[in-house]
Amino acid sequence: MTASLAQTREEDPAYHFGEGKVDELARLIEREDADVAIVDNEVGPYQTFNIGAKLPEGAEVIDRFTLILDIFGQRARTRKAQLQVELAELRYELPRAEVKASLAKRDERPGFMGLGEYDESRERDIKAQISRIGDELDAIAETEEKRREQRRESGFDLVALAGYTNAGKSTLLRRLADDLDVDENADRHPDVDSTAESRNQLFTTLGTTTRRANTGKRDVLLTDTVGFISDLPHWLVESFKSTLNSVYHADLVLLVVDASESVEEMRKKLVTSHDTLYERNEAPIVTVFNKVDRLGDDELRRKREALSALAPTPVTVSGLTGERIDELCERVEAELPDWKRERLLLPLSDDAMSLVSWVHDNGHVEREEYDARQVELEFQAPPAVVERARSRAAEVDPEPGAESAESA
Length: 408
What we know:
By secondary structure, this protein is an alpha/beta fold. Helix content is 44%, strand content 18%. The protein folds into four domains: 74 residues, GTPase HflX, N-terminal domain (Rossmann fold, 3-Layer(aba) Sandwich), CATH 3.40.50; 62 residues; 184 residues, P-loop containing nucleotide triphosphate hydrolases (Rossmann fold), CATH 3.40.50; 68 residues, Alpha-Beta Plaits, CATH 3.30.70. The protein has 13 helices and 13 strands. Strands 4-5-6-3-7-8-9 form a seven-stranded mixed sheet, sandwiched between helices. It has a four-stranded antiparallel sheet with strand order 11-12-10-13, with helices on one face. A two-stranded parallel ribbon has the order 1-2.
């Protein structure tokens, strides 16, 4: 059973709420025999302790970020996710440890206000752990950056799904993805299965899930990332920077928005998403209005007009039903970085056939013609693939009497 209280006023520096409202909260907790009071704001360390001192014995007060971190901790199953949660928890705990030290020094009684014995080494330990975790996450980020470059060199474009929790990113990933799984980490982890998890709940996707998708002529690696959450403090966003790197370093970002929500809610989330993405991201961003199966054409038209300043050319789709997915694939191909065109003349040989097969796998072949002595290949591919194809073509060993390979 739950009960709630609300108050609209300037924040009280001592209690967050007014002191009278805290007394009312204490009476409510006692009447309902509640164990926890959850505050849907960020509550400062002193405010937390002051509120806790007025509550019935045994009752705990936590703010929304403590709750978020607790849920994240339950969902973190990869090493990177676990490290990011631990980093966020330590950054959250550090100012509270400093307050505990201040309060304990001010009052000589052990265990003042139920804070426990003060250990002066705790602050140093937290700072040391933050440094250690930061170094390990930097190493993971370096490895992932190398993997991204290897994937680009293999002909893949990197597309990231971004947006708020419950916008339908995981459902859209399942709709677009091929059967082939591509794990973001070197080892397979329990939170990466044959299909991306898709549930109507917050924080389902904590780590990244990357899968192969074919949008037409180009091979795409599509990554579903942690969902955005309203009003996150800077320290929490920074703690999950490693996961957001999949968005910041993508070739294209699909910003997924739940079109079934109100215009006011969509606008607020678009503004926050833009603030998060445009600060660091240099890739094109395509806004996707998802869940259009839940609203009629007139309502969709009204929402597009109302939000045209924030999303002038959105793609409207339903990840659930597949409606207009073809239009999204066309838009993805149009927005991705341009490929280079190349024409190769290769002497007929086993090496040449191996190269032709490799180009088929890593680019888009537009023409392939054979005569008795050579094969002519015209294709489009990422610049890195074109350069590698030229290098391999120069090394093709011709059969006796055949002409050497040349790039035209």
